[in-house]
Amino acid sequence: MPKKKKKPKNKISKYSKKKKVNKKRPRIKKKSKKIGETRTKKDSSSQELVFKTKPEWIKNGLTNKAQYQNKYKESIKNNNSFWKKEGKRITWIKPYKKIKDVKYSKSEVKIRWYEDGTLNASDNCIDRHLKDKKDKTAIIWVGDDPKDTQKISYKQLHQKVSKAANGLKN
């Protein structure tokens, strides 16, 4: 069998000239998942940065810190009844009977929510908002060039989805 040729030591490959760059992203450390809390982030110089939630975001939120904490405690304390109630917040074509099927073992991880029910995603994500939010922004689309943006209202989104769905019928 012929021997492999060795590369001359004085010849430098295009890869060996590259500097080693630490490609690790800054580590994000969450102090809390609670609404209105701050988040911390370690940057490349190992300084801790604190990002505070803007007061107007907290004010305009759909829930406040106390409501969130109460809901979270309820989800832990009465898990099945909590998710049964939450499941009723959306529209079902065929209502569910089984809330969850969860299994955690070394050989299998299985998580199924409302598996015997049937949803219409368009109805839950678009149609139900047409009555009172038709002119509000449903999607903010940003292209590859950040200057290329589009705000799409629920009404516009409904029209586009309907057009695409009708095209699929044929």
Describe the overall structure.
- A 3-stranded antiparallel β-sheet has the order 1-2-3, with no helix packed on it. A two-stranded antiparallel sheet has the order 4-7. A two-stranded antiparallel sheet has the order 5-6.
- It has 6 helices and 9 strands, in the order βββαααββββααββα.
- Among the domains are: 52 residues, no CATH class; 51 residues, no CATH class.
List keywords for this structure.
single chain; 170 residues; alpha+beta; three-stranded antiparallel β-sheet; two-stranded antiparallel sheet; 6 helices; 9 strands; 31% helix; extended
Q: Give the neighbour order of strands across the main sheet.
A: 1-2-3
Number of strands: 9
Order of helices and strands: EEEHHHEEEEHHEEH
Which strand-content bin applies to the residues? 15-25%
Number of helices: 6
Q: Helicity, in percent?
A: 25-40%
Q: How many angstroms does the end-to-end distance come to?
A: 64 Å
* pLDDT averaged residue by residue: 82
Shape descriptor: extended
Contiguous low-pLDDT stretches (5 residues minimum) are 11-21
Structural class: alpha+beta
Summarize the biggest pleated sheet: 3 strands, antiparallel
Structural Rg: 26 Å
Work out the oligomeric state of the chains in this entry: single chain
What's this entry about, in short?
With 170 residues, this protein is α+β, with helices and mostly antiparallel strands. The protein has 6 helices and 9 strands, in the order E-E-E-H-H-H-E-E-E-E-H-H-E-E-H.
